[in-house]
Amino acid sequence: MLRPHDLSFIKASSLPLAAITAHYGLNHLARLRPRESVLIHAAAGAVGQLAIQLAQKQGATIFVTVSTKKKKELLMNLYGIDKNHFFSGRNLNFTSQVMRITKGQGVDVVLNSLAGEALVEPWRCVTPLGRFIKIGKRDINAFASLPMAPFAKNSSSGFEEAFRYLQTGRHSGNAVVDWTVEDTIKFNKNSTYVIAGGLGGIGRSIARWMAIRGAKYLMLLSRSGAKGPAAEELVEDLKAQGVEIRVPLCDISDKTTLLSVIQEYERTIPQIRGLIHSGMVVKNAMFDHMTRSEFQATLDPKIRGTWNLHDILPKEMDFFVLFYYAAGGAFQDAFSRYCLSEGLPCASLDLGAVSSVGYLAENMDTSKIITLSYTGHEVLDENDPHFPVEYACSPAVQNPESPWDAQLLCAVSTPAQVKKKEHAWMQKPVFRHLYQMDKEHVGRVQEDSTAINYGALIKEAKCLEEAGDVIATALAKRLSRSLSVPGEDLDLNKPAYSFGVDSLVAIEL
């Protein structure tokens, strides 16, 4: 290999490995083509910078992750990358950000040098027929295979019809199932769809998803209207995609206001054919400290709002989908079964916690979200709710075998997952029956009954230091159970809040 005269031996020695890696990954394996998009991780490194140069030579759209502001400024100055195409490599939220900027399309190529969970996350933003290139040896055995969730969109709903047709004996030749994107839900471009709470985090995500699936008329109902950068950005993005969007101020729990808004807009928009109800009000308080007005404000969108929407919107709709939580959800579950008994489409989604958009993302720090996962919640990502919503919008829910099919459970752990985490609340008598979920752990209750008597150990301690060690051991064991983390992972020299201990966990301790 010839060395240019203006390139020193020291600089030249650093190039071959990085250059060959970037060239082999992007050009040989990924076969990056002009006008495709590529996500390059750790882009300020040697491989990353050479990958940027190769991608620019191909005429590709470049997205990058960096770990510091200085590295971002370096790459902007050297390569002129759009400032909106930078993401932080220190957290896993970049996946949803990439999907938002690419209007839900994702990227054609991912050049990934990250490890651990960061290896799996970018897989979520790869387009159909995209390419995922992993460089580096770390975790190569632990992640010998990646989850195939992105391929679920290739599934076909025509298998049952095909096999039943073959059973009739009337066929000649073969019955072919057509694997096309038309198998997914497509929204009617000549209909209007209403999203209550449409300017909240989850509502915005659903609105973008519906626009990608063909919706051209959207009415987003919100008590605050299109205020704030996120709401304004959504409106601009949807208008750029040719979507006619209406964002009236409307409290759905006020029937008079809702009726006035619907009557005003139905003169200028196509017929309303579907509803997504994601509106919510959160008033956090312990139940014995909650006032009646706080309790009522929380329930109103889910109970009064749901009934008002049912009463005012047309009955001849394609879908009526409810998101819910806690007490308000008990009503919405019963309401969905009532609608099915009346021959009306309706589904209620037990959605659970969503980390990257919505209330948790906007009101909780990362440590509290991690605590949720420790205490038994299966935390969802932004795109996860789209799949049950797609099912709830399909004709499949209009002819269920049972009214109970109207309730869709999301983010439910398997029995093995629940017991593996050994949540502290499972020790309470009311939950002890969960140990019978399979016979492998039937004897667990008896085993746990042989608890250590720490009071006796403290009394037997010969000095304050020894008593302190007993107390520290007891607290560490209880904290390990409350957070569902191994005891050896807890450093007793660190403050409790560093483990994500909030007020609720502190009360348990």
UniProtKB/TrEMBL annotation:
Residues 1-177 form the Enoyl reductase (ER) domain. GO terms for biological process: fatty acid biosynthetic process; secondary metabolite biosynthetic process. GO terms for molecular function: fatty acid synthase activity; oxidoreductase activity. Residues 191-357 form the Ketoreductase domain. This is KR-domain-containing protein.
